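Posting this for the archive.
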Amino acid sequence: MALKVISSLYEQEAQKRGIFGDLAAISKTVFTTKDVALLWGEDAEQTITGRLHKYVKAGKLVSVRRGIYAKDENYDRFEMATRIYTPSYVSFETVLTRAGINFQYYDTIFVASYVSRDIYDVWYFLKNNWPLNREIVEQRSGMPLNEFLQKCIDQLEKMTNKNILVGLGESLTDRQKDWARAKLRSDTIFLLKARMESEG
């Protein structure tokens, strides 16, 4: 009973300070308990999760996944995907699918934590000769297709193979890892150049 009273008093004080208002005011649609700890200046994880749980029960927040919350059911799915693994970003495969470049539609949002996975994805798409939607690529990149492909080549040429397996190695066999260390970057450059020539 005493704990319930203390908890209730703490909640009243939090409401006076506008703690829920702080959450409502942030631009993010999805946030973690770590985000909330920084926002509220609170170190006690039990206090944070307890308060968030109360907001969920009251219908003010949605618990999307353990430790991840949303303001409502209309949260940004891409933002959610990047909150599960940090640091990360929406991967090349998802972007290509949404842009109409990848002809196979996946409802799944893929995220990548390292550049290596994107290089592998580009190599895979080009190796399989998947079509590019010139109009969408040019619209999204703000430049002609061949100029965009050249920019990709330039970036790859500046890189080294030193960390090519970071974020990628666990999904490859030992033989594929050996190939990726030696050839992934150079093969991707070759395929990008070939695509440039074929696109005219």
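Residues 89-199 form one domain. The chain has ten helices and five strands.
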